[in-house]
Amino acid sequence: MNQPQQQGQQPGQFQGQRYPILLSTMNDLPGYEVVRVFGEVFGLTVRSRNMFSTMGAGFKAMAGGELKGLSKLLSDSRHEALGRLSEEAMAFGANAVLALRFDCNEIAQTASEIAAYGTAVYVVPHTQR
Question: Which InterPro entries does UniProt cross-reference here (predicted)?
């Protein structure tokens, strides 16, 4: 989990984070109060697998072990979905997304869909109320 806003930072800035807002799978945020709920937001990406990656994964699957090309594809897709989720939440004025979840599906055995969704909120430290 990213660290909450520290003193001296602007609202919506959280220390040590990869994304411009706080993303948390928790339903609440200890030490913070949700002062506004904007509602559900999501980020979605669909990625196709290239023919060589699919063929290589088939050979690797016969031998056993991690399918590194497919792992990288899914990891990149997850980060892209989180980036899009962050952008949508910020467009509402949110500085955090709580109850973050992922959904993954295969489409026509040639592509993977990754959806990240959660509740866009604005949080403040308990002492700043």
Answer: UPF0145_dom_sf (IPR035439), UPF0145_YbjQ-like (IPR002765)
